[in-house]
Automatic annotation (TrEMBL):
<feature type="compositionally biased region" description="Basic and acidic residues">
    <location>
        <begin position="36"/>
        <end position="50"/>
    </location>
</feature>
<feature type="region of interest" description="Disordered">
    <location>
        <begin position="1"/>
        <end position="57"/>
    </location>
</feature>
<dbReference type="InterPro" id="IPR043502">
    <property type="entry name" value="DNA/RNA_pol_sf"/>
</dbReference>
<protein>
    <recommendedName>
        <fullName>Reverse transcriptase Ty1/copia-type domain-containing protein</fullName>
    </recommendedName>
</protein>
<feature type="domain" description="Reverse transcriptase Ty1/copia-type">
    <location>
        <begin position="101"/>
        <end position="203"/>
    </location>
</feature>
<feature type="compositionally biased region" description="Polar residues">
    <location>
        <begin position="13"/>
        <end position="23"/>
    </location>
</feature>
<dbReference type="InterPro" id="IPR013103">
    <property type="entry name" value="RVT_2"/>
</dbReference>
<feature type="domain" description="Reverse transcriptase Ty1/copia-type">
    <location>
        <begin position="235"/>
        <end position="367"/>
    </location>
</feature>
<dbReference type="Pfam" id="PF07727">
    <property type="entry name" value="RVT_2"/>
</dbReference>
<dbReference type="GO" id="GO:0071897">
    <property type="term" value="P:DNA biosynthetic process"/>
</dbReference>
Length: 459
């Protein structure tokens, strides 16, 4: 194994501490230690790389445009409830960003055009401790009505692999690097559409535009809102011609990735062959970047280079500087002078609450001793969300909890043929997580470095 290459990601089979023999594991032992790697070498990018389909499924378990857990709210209920003013403000902020980005132009509907539908998604955003952080509204296009070959062509867009995040944590610990976090506001709206698309007028758009005109201080935004409102009042103006890749369009993710990938290359960053969203710096061998849709992790000890990259990104996008990374993709990041640790205690608490297991009794092993499950012959749909639970556990296992990998792999064999026995076994994993929710991956600095060995007999 070549220790100077990023092509080999660290193994998921990390050694874990021995579980206590009692039902309640000793919290002092809840640490998983991983040997860090010593050095890296930039590789030439492989642009045609296709990520695993598993990555796409796992990406749906977290909110890609924020590091906070998100919970969708019914729009009718929100606008008639006690927090309706806060939700309307969130919708106004969303429309304001759409107006500022020139997302669409109000035009007369072409006779032959089929309008794409749209809807507003409302979400409560939560902090890691479970408290509401803010209200969020997102206008999305109903891309399922798009016709392939006419409305869109290419749709693939890569996202960062979680083992790349662990690799950067090991590098940061080994070389005393700092992990900085940035967020691109309304990221998809920076990508331009590559086909002619017309969308329906969003609901409540006139009322929201009037509110923007009455309350906004920025004159440029007010002028744009007035123009759009005037166009809406004209009887022959009845559609939105999209200029930018609005959320929900089939090609939106790809258009955004192509946009930011081009900007990063201009800044001297190059994607690696092992992960198209893991970048190395041609100007500083110990500067790295990880991109997950609009979440950016920049790893470096060169403060001047960090400032240069930040300035370059801010020149092209509305960039939010979040300082040292603390929470990203449901993973808590702790940085010290001697180590970097990754933990998903907040995500564990969330899934325990989701499956009504917050008050369960902890156990010391992921699976019961001697457990042997059989395929259920009754394939009728079950009332319990077995596959939903397995999906959440899978995200944990590939993130920071390799100790449950075997259990999740075994239980996932029964996704289409499960019964109450399998459901009980899956909840047993939750009971184990209840007692080990603070278990971490800890990457400590190793002065000896990483050594590889090969058996000459098999040369």
């Amino acid at each position: 194994m070549n220790s100077n290459s990023l092509d080999e990601a660290p193994s998921d089979n990390c050694p874990t501490t021995n579980a206590s023999s009692s039902d309640g594991p000793d919290e002092s032992e809840n640490v998983v230690r991983v040997v860090p790697i010593e050095d890296t070498k930039a590789n030439e990018p492989y642009e045609g790389r296709v990520t695993r389909s598993r990555s796409k499924r796992l990406a749906q378990l977290t909110d890609p445009e924020s590091t906070m857990i998100a919970c969708e709210v019914d729009m009718k209920e929100a606008l008639s409830g006690p927090d309706k003013a806060a939700w309307f403000d969130a919708m106004r902020d969303e429309v304001k960003s759409l107006v500022n980005n020139d997302t669409w132009t109000v035009v007369e509907k072409p006779h032959s055009a089929k309008l794409i539908g749209c809807r507003t998604v409302l979400r409560n955003k939560y902090n890691p401790d479970g408290t509401i952080c803010r209200r969020k509204a997102r206008l999305v296009a109903q891309g399922f009505s798009q016709i392939p070959g006419i409305d869109y062509f290419e749709t693939f867009a890569p996202v960062a692999r979680l083992d790349s995040l662990r690799t950067l944590a090991a590098l940061a610990s080994q070389h005393k690097l700092k992990i900085f976090q940035f967020d691109v506001v309304t990221a998809y709206l920076h990508g331009e559409v590559d086909t002619t698309l017309h969308m329906q007028i969003p609901k409540m758009l006139p009322e929201i535009l009037e509110s923007i005109i009455a309350t906004e201080n920025d004159q440029v935004t007010v002028d744009k809102a007035k123009i759009m409102l005037d166009d809406l009042k004209k009887n022959n103006k009845s559609a939105c011609k999209l200029n930018k890749a609005l959320y929900g369009l089939r090609q939106a993710g790809r258009r955004w990735y192509e946009k930011i990938n081009g900007v990063l290359k201009q800044l001297g960053l190059r994607p690696t062959s092992c992960d198209s969203c893991l970048y190395t710096d041609s100007r500083d061998k110990l500067t790295f970047m990880l991109l997950y849709v609009d979440d950016i992790l920049l790893v470096s000890r060169n403060i001047a280079r960090v400032a240069e990259i930040k300035k370059g990104l801010a020149a092209s996008f509305d960039l939010k500087d979040m300082g040292l990374a603390k929470y990203c993709l449901g993973i808590e990041i702790e940085q010290s002078n001697s180590s970097v640790s990754l933990c998903q205690s907040g995500f564990i608490k969330e899934i325990l609450a989701r499956f009504d297991m917050l008050d369960c009794k902890p156990v010391s092993t992921p699976l019961a001793t001697g457990l042997k499950l059989e395929r259920c012959k009754d394939l009728t749909p079950k009332s319990f969300p077995y596959r939903e639970l397995i999906g959440a556990l899978m995200y944990l296992s590939v993130g920071t909890r390799p100790d449950i990998t075997h259990a999740v792999s075994y239980l996932s064999q029964f996704n289409s043929c499960h019964d109450n026995t399998h459901w009980t076994a899956a909840k047993h994993v939750l009971r184990y997580l209840k007692g080990t929710s603070n278990m971490k991956l800890v990457y400590s600095r190793d002065e000896k470095g990483l050594k590889g060995f090969a058996d000459a007999d098999w040369g």
